[in-house]
Amino acid sequence: MSKRIVVLKRNEPVSRNSCTTSSFTVMRNVRYGHCQKNQAASIGGYAVDGCREFMASGEEGTSGALTCAACGCHRNFHRREVEEGG
User: Fold this and answer.
1) What 3-state class would DSSP assign to 79?
2) Which InterPro entries does the protein's record reference (predicted)?
């Protein structure tokens, strides 16, 4: 199983080849929306903190790039939204 790296809010071309040897490029825009971390899981409840969008607390390539500046959660707790266009 290989590890995938996704860049936040960046258009990246993705090449896909079909069986007829024709190719096209798909532009993918990835952003991370509201936080889904259950803050009350340890006491058996359900409560989210209300963070509406992921904002990186550091520069790309650092460990702070995966931590939200607003709520302090890891980027994986935020809803991933992918927009594809061709």
Assistant:
1) strand
2) ZF_HD_homeobox_Cys/His_dimer (IPR006456)
Hey, what are 29's tokens? 């825009």
User: pTM score, two decimals?
Assistant: 0.61
In the three-class reduction of DSSP (H, G, I as helix; E, B as strand; rest coil), residue 63 is classed as helix
Instruction: Evaluate whether 31 touches 46 at the Cβ level (below 8 Å).
Output: no
| Nearby residues of 11 by Cβ (< 8 Å), 6 or more positions away | 27, 28, 29
Q: Which residues are 23's β-sheet partners?
A: 17
pLDDT digits (tens, 9 = 90+) for 12-57: 555 555 455 556 676 788 899 999 999 999 999 999 988 999 999 9
- Give the CB-side neighbour count of residue 47, counting CA atoms within 13 A: 7
> 4: which DSSP letter?
P
Per DSSP, 58 falls in state S
